[in-house]
Records
---
Amino acid sequence: MHSTLAWWIAGPILGLVILGLLGLANKRFGVVGGVTDLVHDSAAGEGRASWRALLVVGIVLGGAAYALLAGAPDAGSGYSWLDAHLSLGGEVALLFGAGLAIGVGARTAGGCTSGHGLTGSALASPASIVSMMTIM
C-alpha cells in the first residue's frame, strides 16, 4: 500500500470512468456539485442522497480507510515547510482557510478542477477551457 498506480494505468481508468458516467448516465464528473448537495439538501432530486454527494462521502471515507490501513493518519507530517514554521493548530487553520478559498473559487468558476479539467475540457466547453487556462 506504499505505492500508487502508474500514471499510464490510473489515467486511462479515470478516463473510462468519466466516459462511462457521461455515456451511461449523461452526468458530468465533478466534486463541487457533491459538496453543494451535501450542504444544500435541495428538493429537486439532488441533495444528500444524490450520486454526487455519495461520491464526496466515498472520497472522504476511502481516504480515511487508506490512512488507517497504511498505519494511521499522521497529521502534521505532510507539509514540511508548514511543519517547520507553524504549530499544528496554525497549520490546520491555514489549510482550512485554503480549502475554503478553493471552494469559493470553484463556486465562482461554476465548477471545480475535476469538472472543468476532466469533463468540460474533454467536451471542448469554452467556459471549461478558459477556467483551466486561468487555473494553470
---
Amino acid sequence: NLSAIAYHFGGKEQLHEAAVQHALDELAPRREAVIQHLETILEQAGGDRIVLAGSIKLFVRGIFTIFVQDNFPVVPIRMLMREIHHPTSSFDLVIEGHINPIQDAVAGLAAIALGKDISDPEVRLLGMSVTGQIFMLGIMQPVVLSRMGWSDYSADNADTIIKLTTTSILRLLGLPES
C-alpha cells in the first residue's frame, strides 16, 4: 500500500529507484566479468590484430553462451531496458552504473582495433554497435527463435548466430576474419 511505500522508501519514485539499483546490483558480477574479460583480451592481444580478432571470436561465443543459459537474470535486464526506453529519474543510475562501464570497455576494444582514441565519436558509436549485436541476439531470444522457426538455441543454431555476429563485428572493426 502507498503508506508502506512512503514509510519504507519515501515514495513511489524512491521505490522505483531502489528496484533499479537492485537490478544493477544483481547484474554487477556479470557486468564486471564482461569488463574484465575485455581488458584481458586487450592485454593478451598486445596490439596484434590477428590475436585480437581471434579473441573477439572467443568473447562473442562466451557472452552469447551466458545469455542463453537458463539462469541468466532476465528480469533485471528487462527492468533496465524499460528504464532505457522510458526514462525516469533512475535513468542516470542505469547509464552510470551499467551502460557506461560496459560501453567504455567495448569502446576500448574498438579504439585499439581502429587505432584511434577512445573519445573519437566513431569509436564510441562502433562500440555501441558491437555491444548491440552481441547483447540483442541474446536478450531477444524469443524473437530470434520465432523469426527463425527454431524451438531453441541448439548447438548448430548458436554456432550460426555466433559465426555471423563475429564476422559482422570483425568487419565493423576492420579486423581479419581468418
---
Amino acid sequence: MIDRYCRPEMKELWNEESKYAYWAQVEKAHLLTLIERKQAPENIIPAFESALKAKTIEDFLKKEQETGHDVIAFISEIASEMKDFGHFLHKG
C-alpha cells in the first residue's frame, strides 16, 4: 500500500506479516477443499502448517527479488518446504 493513501487501520491489515497470514488462510482453505474432493491426501495439512512455520517473511521477500512476483515467491517457498506435497499448492 502507498503510505499517503493508507489509514492506520489499512496499514495494520496489509503489513507484510498480515498479508502472508491471509494468503496462508486462502491456501489452507484450498488444500482442505482438495482433501474434501479426494484430490489430496489428508496429511497435507500438517505438512503445510510445518512448512509455513519454517519460513519467514525474509524468505518470501528474498524469493520475491528472484521471481519478481510476491505470490509466486510465497507459493514457491512454502511448496519447496512441503517437498512431495508442494505441487498441491495454488493448484487450479
---
Amino acid sequence: SDNKCFIPLMEKYKEIYGKYPTTPVADAGYGNLQTYSFCEKNNIRKFMKFATWEKETHDKDFHEDPFRSVNFKIDDDGNPICPNGKKFFKISDSYIKGNKDKRVEEKFQCEDCNGCPFRDKCHQSKYNRVININRTLTSYHKEVIDNLASEEGIKLRCTRSYMSEGAFGVIKQDYNYRRITRVSLKKVNLELYLIIIGFNLAKYHNLKNRTNIEIY
C-alpha cells in the first residue's frame, strides 16, 4: 500500500542523510492516519494531500455541507449536534485497524431522527443516523490544508509538479511505459533503473543539443 511505501522511504532517507526530511510532499495516496502519525512523531511537517483534499479546498458546497459530520457543532460534553439540533451520543470506541499508535475512532448515534425535516438530506437509513468521528485525523486534515495553502506549500506543490510529475508523464505517455514486465523485487528494480537511466540520458542529450554547450 502507499502507506507501506512512505515510511520505508522516510527511513531510507534517514539512513542516507542522517535525518528525516522536514517537508516531504506526496499525492493523496499517502494522506492517511498512519503517515500523518509517523510525521507527527518525527517532527516532519505534513504536506501530503488526502483523498478529499481537492473537494475540501475547491468545492465550497462540499466543504460547507452542514450534514457532513465534520461540520457538526460540538457541545461542551464533546457530543456532536446535527443541523436539526439533535444530539449524538457515543455508542462505542474502536481502534483503527493497522494503526500502531492505538488511535481511536468514536461512533456516535443521533438521539432521534424521527420527523426530522432534513432527514432526506442527512442520511438514508431507516434508523437513527450513526457517524464515525476521528478527531485526530480531522485535526491533521486541517493542518495539511493550512500547510498546502501557505506560500511554502504552494512552492512545494509547484516544484513537485515539474520535477516528478513531468518525468512520470514523459515515461508513461511518450515512452508508453505503463507496466513492469519482470517478476521479483531484484528484477523489478533492475527494470526501473534501466528506464530511469534511459530517461536521464535522453534528457542529457536533448539539453546538450538545445543549448549547444558542453556538459560535464
